[in-house]
Amino acid sequence: MFSPQGPSLRELVVQALSSVERGYDLLAPKFDHTPFRTPDSVLDATADVLRPLGPFGQALDVCCGTGAGMRVLAPLCRGPITGVDFSAGMLARARRTHPDAAWVQADARALPFAGSFDLAVSFGALGHFLPAERPALFAGVRRALRPGGLFAFPIGAPPPVTSGMYWAMLGFDLAMRARNALWRPPFVMYYNTCPLSAVRAELAAAGFTVTTAPLTALGRREDGSPRCLLVLAHTINHPAP
């Protein structure tokens, strides 16, 4: 799962026993060599769905990490692109790799933008927010978008209970809950806390109309349903409160 350029087991343990922010600061130099970076296949499939909806003007990558989302945004946007993350280490890496974009350090639960963007995306970040925190996240993205703007992010279908992936994700979440019950500061990262039904309801409450599109390039499950969907949350066509 890790390339030779990736972190050692010791480095991963130190990261996991840190706060989320400090953990990603430590992991940043080697993050792109881990399976935690959003795969190019997911980025490319997202771009395929968004391309017919563009081109877009200014865009925002929420919880941008080292800037992998630039693979999606750069070809689709005519205006400036901004990435926001709370890890200084991840942003430093993003600045070196993509010097033409703007990179802002901020907590995604309190985004410092208002009516600035036509498109916002996020990749692999929802698990870092507890369910009680997602309304603030979605409300902040809503405020950051212009009327008629779009917030898009991929979300995987839950694996069947008979699959190894189901039990691996459940085991990870249980281990993280035990870790956070016994160790401070907490490291928030869970796989099974953001079902699509809850996310849709929270986005609607924040002022979005929500549809989904299958990311067909990522394949289908045995029952024929897509392995991954792209959530497409459009702002209702008036300014955010």
Automatic annotation (TrEMBL):
It comes from the Bacteria. Its EC number is 2.1.-.-. Keywords: Methyltransferase, Transferase. It is an enzyme of class 2 (transferase). GO terms for molecular function: methyltransferase activity. It comes from Nonomuraea harbinensis. It holds the Pfam family Methyltransf_25. PANTHER family: METHYLTRANSFERASE (PTHR43591), OS06G0646000 PROTEIN (PTHR43591:SF99). Residues 60-149 form the Methyltransferase domain. GO terms for biological process: methylation. This is Class I SAM-dependent methyltransferase.
